[in-house]
Design goal:
The chain is mainly α and 188 residues long. It has a single domain, classed as Hypothetical protein, domain 2 (Endonuclease III, domain 1). It has 9 helices and 2 strands, in the order H-H-H-H-H-H-H-E-H-H-E. The chain has a two-stranded parallel ribbon with strand order 1-2. The two termini are 27 Å apart.
Length: 188
C-alpha cells in the first residue's frame, strides 16, 4: 500500500529542510526570547533572498552569532564584524551584519522595558495567535498589525524590520497561523 503524502502549504515545496521547517516550526506560537531574537535576525538576513537560502545557512548563523545571544552580539565591535563579513557560511552583507548588532542592542532595551521581548511582541496581536484559514491566493504580505509592529520596532532603533519582514516574522513565530486551506497543519 502506497504511503500518502502530506499536503502542505505550497511554499514548503519538496526540499526536506523546508518541509521540516514548515511541519515543525512555522506557525507554532513562540514564547522564548532567544528564539525570537534568532528569528528576527534571520528574517532580516533574508531580506531580498529566499527563505530556503537562510534555512540552509541557519547552523552557520548559530555558530557565527554566538547562538543568537543578544547580550554577546550587542558587544560586537569592528574586529568581530570584520570576521563575520569574511564568513562564507552567512550572508556577508555589511548592512545586515551591522543591523544584527544594532538589533541586539534594541532587543535588550525592549527586554529591559517590558521584562521580556515576548511580553512586548505579542501585544501586536492582542496576546493571542491570529488564526486565518485562507486559500493560498489570499495570504497577505503585510497587515495592519505588521505595519504597527514595523513602525514601533523602527522607532525603538531596530533595522531590517519593514512591514513585510515583520509579517513573515509573525508567521514564523506563530503570532499568526497562516497555513492555507488543505494543508495538514491548517487545523492545528
Amino acid at each position: 500500500m502506497k504511503k500518502r503524502e502530506k499536503v502542505r502549504c505550497t511554499w514548503a515545496g519538496t526540499d526536506p529542510l523546508y518541509q521540516k521547517y514548515h511541519d515543525k516550526e512555522w506557525g507554532v506560537p513562540l514564547h522564548d526570547d532567544r528564539k525570537f531574537f534568532e528569528m528576527l535576525l534571520l528574517e532580516g538576513a533574508q531580506a531580498g533572498l529566499s527563505w530556503i537560502t537562510i534555512l540552509r545557512k541557519r547552523e552557520n548563523y548559530r555558530k557565527a552569532f554566538d547562538n543568537f545571544d543578544a547580550k554577546k552580539i550587542a558587544r560586537y565591535r569592528t574586529p568581530k564584524i570584520q570576521a563575520l563579513l569574511q564568513n562564507e557560511g552567512i550572508v556577508r552583507n555589511r548592512l545586515k551584519v551591522a543591523g544584527a548588532v544594532k538589533n541586539a542592542r534594541a532587543f535588550l532595551a525592549v527586554q529591559k522595558e517590558f521584562g521580556s521581548f515576548d511580553a512586548y511582541i505579542w501585544r501586536f496581536v492582542g496576546g493571542r495567535q491570529k488564526r486565518r484559514l485562507r486559500p493560498v491566493t489570499h495570504v497577505p504580505a503585510t497587515t495592519p498589525e505588521s505595519d504597527a509592529m514595523s513602525k514601533d520596532l523602527k522607532a525603538r532603533g531596530f533595522t531590517f524590520v519593514g512591514s513585510t519582514i515583520c509579517y513573515a516574522f509573525m508567521q514564523a513565530t506563530g503570532m499568526v497561523h497562516d497555513h492555507v486551506a488543505g494543508c495538514f497543519r491548517a487545523k492545528r
